[in-house]
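Figure 3 (text version): structure tokens given as input.
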């Protein structure tokens, strides 16, 4: 029987000149809730979806309710989920009008033969499955982190949420959700809904990314962690090497990962990353910077 473990992130766009006194205890509370679910035998998939849904609904992170708009003021949301070792996956991209893209991604996984639905097709699918709508975007979205220091012109400023889980039965799941980079072009899709780039789970590891998605796509960042671990590399080293490759291309961000033994990695090459973990020994940590 595997010992359970999990990690979550609230984005690698953290800045030292900002106050995260709300996010840090919020993330800890989500990990405590996940711990209790896992102790009751809840599946990795259910824990990952519930955790990311709560991150989306909080309005504290640049995903779900805290989403950033594109250049036209529209909210296009992306999410994906993957389970292991079966490698089932579902994703949505450029979804408008619905509250929890991670829930829609799960429905794609569970009730379609596809991996990703996008744009109007994703919205029609969500409507057909009675997903929660956003009736008034101006009232719903909090635009978390929309200070001018967060999205200078010409820079891929970013924010994402994600979760990786190993449950007591040894099953794994990874889920990621975002609104993408600040002030993006309409129709821009980053790494978050792309399996291998923004989310990966293969039974060896579960991985979720956050950062400048273009670079995560160019490196197949999350899957690359899995491939490295499968080839025998230590989890921490694998994550560090992938982030080094991203940095070498000029990108920044972070990765959270858990392997089938419950070992965890939460590394980043940006100024900070909002994250929290539950170790197999029951320790909970919630932090933003490495002080």
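Below: residues designed for each position.
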């Amino acid at each position: 029987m595997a010992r359970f473990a999990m990690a979550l992130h609230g984005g690698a766009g953290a800045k030292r000149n900002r106050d995260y006194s709300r996010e840090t205890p919020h993330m800890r509370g989500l990990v405590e809730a996940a711990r209790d679910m896992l102790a009751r035998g809840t599946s990795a998939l259910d824990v990952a979806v519930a955790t990311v849904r709560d991150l989306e609904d909080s309005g504290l992170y640049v995903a779900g309710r805290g989403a950033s708009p594109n250049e036209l003021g529209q909210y296009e949301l992306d999410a994906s989920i993957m389970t292991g070792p079966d490698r089932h996956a579902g994703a949505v991209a450029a979804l408008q009008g619905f509250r929890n893209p991670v829930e829609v991604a799960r429905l794609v996984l569970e009730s379609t033969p596809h991996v990703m639905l996008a744009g109007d097709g994703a919205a029609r699918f969500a409507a057909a499955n009675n997903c929660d709508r956003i009736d008034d975007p101006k009232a719903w979205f909090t635009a978390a982190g929309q200070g001018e220091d967060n999205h200078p012109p010409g820079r891929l400023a970013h924010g994402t949420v994600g979760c990786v889980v190993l449950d007591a039965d040894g099953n794994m799941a990874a889920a990621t959700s975002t609104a993408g980079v600040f002030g993006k072009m309409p129709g821009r899709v980053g790494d978050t809904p792309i399996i291998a780039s923004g989310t990966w789970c293969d039974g060896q590891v579960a991985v979720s990314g956050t950062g400048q998605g273009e670079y995560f796509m160019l490196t197949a960042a999350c899957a690359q962690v899995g491939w490295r671990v499968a080839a025998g590399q230590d989890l921490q080293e694998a994550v560090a090497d992938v982030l080094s490759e991203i940095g070498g291309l000029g990108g920044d961000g972070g990765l959270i990962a858990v392997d089938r033994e419950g070992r965890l990695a939460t590394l980043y090459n940006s100024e900070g990353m909002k994250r929290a973990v539950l170790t197999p020994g029951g320790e909970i940590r919630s932090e933003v910077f490495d002080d």
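The chain has one domain: 5-286.
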